[in-house]
Amino acid sequence: MLDMSLSQEVCAQPFRKGQSAKRSRVGKADTLEETPIKTARREALEEIGLPCDERNLPSHLQLEHLCELPSYCALTELGVRPCVAFLHTGDDALNAEEGLMPRPEPKEVAAIFCAPLPKFLSDRDDMGRDAKTGSEWYKAFWGTWFNTRVRVHQFNVPRRSKERDAAQDIYKVFGMTARMILDTARLAYAEDPSFEYEPRIGDENVLHKLLKSGRFSVEKTPGSLITSDDAAVVAKL
C-alpha cells in the first residue's frame, strides 16, 4: 500500500496555522528557469532534509519522479504545480518512511506525518481512530469557485498514539491540499472516490484567465487574495 507523506506548517502568513501540505509544501521557484520538479526537490531539501541528488540518499532508498499534475489555483493568488514522486526501498520488507529519517526545518515545518494514499478515496473512518480523537475522518461541503460549484474536502488524519497530546489529536488535510491528494489517489489507483467530487483535475483554465486579467504579477503583494468580485470578472473572460 502506498503512503502519502505530508508536512504541517508552522504559523506564518499567508498560510493558516496547522495547515498540512504535500511534501514539499508550496514552494516558490528561485528563477523563471527553475522547473517545478527542481523547485520541489530544493524545497524538500530545505524543509525536511531530502537530498536533491539521488546519490546522496541513504543507500537503501530510491526516489523516482513519476509525473506532474496540472496546476492548481489558491485563493491566496498562488499557482501550484504538484510534482509526484515515489520514495521506496526496493524491498517490501523495509519501510521507506522509517528509513528516511527526515530533518524538519523548525522555522517552516511543525510536523511530518504519513497516511495511506488509498484512504483518501474513502469516506470511511477506519484509520484506527478511538474515542480520544473526537473527530470524524472525512467531511466536505459544496462551494462556488469562479462561478463553478466545487467540492471542498477535509480529511482528519489521526495522530499515532505516541504523537498525541491534549491540544491536537489529528492532522487536518483540507482545501487545495486535500484536492491535490485526492486527484493523485484517483490517478494512482484508477478509481473514483466513494464520495462526491469534481472530475476536473487542476485549474489550468482558471489560471489562464487570471493571467489574462493581469493577476499573478512578478511582484506579488503580501496578503493578496482573489475575492468573489475578482472571480466573477475573470469567469466572464
Q: Main sheet, how many strands, which sense, barrel?
A: 3 strands, antiparallel
Number of helix segments?
A: 5
Tell me how many strands there are. 10
The general outline is globular
Give the ordered list of helices and strands: EEHEEEEHEEEEHHH
Distance between the amino and carboxyl termini: 43 Å
What order do the strands of the largest sheet run in, or round the barrel if closed?
A: 2-1-7
Radius of gyration: 18 Å
Would you kindly provide a written description of the structure presented here, covering whatever features stand out?
With about 240 residues, the chain is an alpha+beta fold. The protein is globular. The longest helix is centred in the last third of the chain and has 15 residues, at about 175-190. It has helices at about 35-50, 95-100, 175-190, 205-210, 230-235, and strands at about 5-10, 20, 60-70, 70-75, 80, 85-90, 110-115, 140-145, 150-160, 170-175.
Q: What order do the helices and strands come in, and which of them pair?
A:
Blueprint: E1 3-9, E2 20-22, H1 36-48, E3 62-68, E4 72-74, E5 78-80, E6 83-88, H2 96-100, E7 109-116, E8 138-145, E9 148-158, E10 170-174, H3 175-189, H4 204-212, H5 228-235
Antiparallel strand pairs: 1-2, 1-7, 3-6, 4-5, 8-9, 9-10
